[in-house]
Write a structure and sequence with these properties.
The chain is of the alpha+beta class. The chain is built from 6 helices and 24 strands. Helices cover 18% and strands 40% of the residues. The strands form 4 sheets. Strands 13-10-11-12-24-23-22-17 form an 8-stranded antiparallel β-sheet. The chain has a 7-stranded antiparallel β-sheet with strand order 6-2-3-4-16-15-14. Strands 5-1-7-8-9 form a 5-stranded antiparallel β-sheet. Helix 1 runs antiparallel to helix 2 and helix 3 crosses helix 4.
Length: 355
Amino acid sequence: MKILIDKSSFENMISTLQAFLDKKDVSQITSHILIEAKDDKLILKATDYEIGLEMINSLVVIEEEGTATSNGKKLLDIIKRLKSDDLIMETRDEILKIKQGKSNFKLPMFDYREYPSFPNRDIDSKIELDNLEFLKSIKKSIPAIDSNNPKFELNGALIDIKESRINLVSTDTKRLSIVEIKHQSNENKELIIPKKALTEIQKIFSSDIEILSDDVNLIIKSENEVFFTKLINGKFPNYERIVPQETKYKIELPKREIIEAIKIVTSVSNEIKMIIRDNQMSFESLGDENSEAKTELELNLNTDANIEMGINSKYLTDFLSIIDTDTFTLELNENNTPFVVKSQSSKTIIMPIVI
């Protein structure tokens, strides 16, 4: 293999692939990027078996086709230090050589034939939906996904495909996020996607994607990328049982004013008390007897609710940070019962702190 490639575009590719490498054990082939030069294209692949990405670059001059591997981290460290000029890469005697001007580097390779294969990208089960809405929904769902939960299914988000909609659902057991996407389908299907995979999807893709799935993998394709992740094998909790079917009070609130009020109170504690009384709303800090913060909002709530609710402020601010509207709806029943915050297709059910 021998190629001439623009340094900047090559660096962008291997930077993106870092998240898909095994960085713990450099003796494993999964710590390497697979490099293929063929058919006037440069194809780079990285995978840790659970998640993988293939990237294609046509802005390359291929003098000699071939395949190589290189430790992804070392390769990036080298490329970052080079100038913006084109660079030459070639393989000789199981060594990858990199040259730019008077700078020369050599990196050992593994046998590319042992590199893990990617799943079949032409599986039949295509998920038809608004791609942009799907990518926006991922961003809204990620904050509520748990991390390192012994119940593996909670370490990802559920894609619940129904005949008239798709619900993207996530929970850390203290809150439940549901984002609804309008959708027409002839099948009901549930897929649980790991949090890491969702995080990378929103970084890589912007629009014009094709989404495929089988019982084991989810595959997303665009013009120059093919992404895959293994699905989480498990049964997601029956989230619809947790959603309150009726709420006694529905209050529309301004997003900006609520965020500013919470910032004031969380200067002392992230655990706060939300008070709705006499048609007014206020917040107070909780948890520290020696410190106190409180603030009252000048709002006309148009409600006779009399509520005192302890909440983790992060759950509320996470929701407010991902909605696109200037107002949102607060739905609640009585003290110390779960409450709901809503905006358009997004809603989060939050468990209170008992006070």
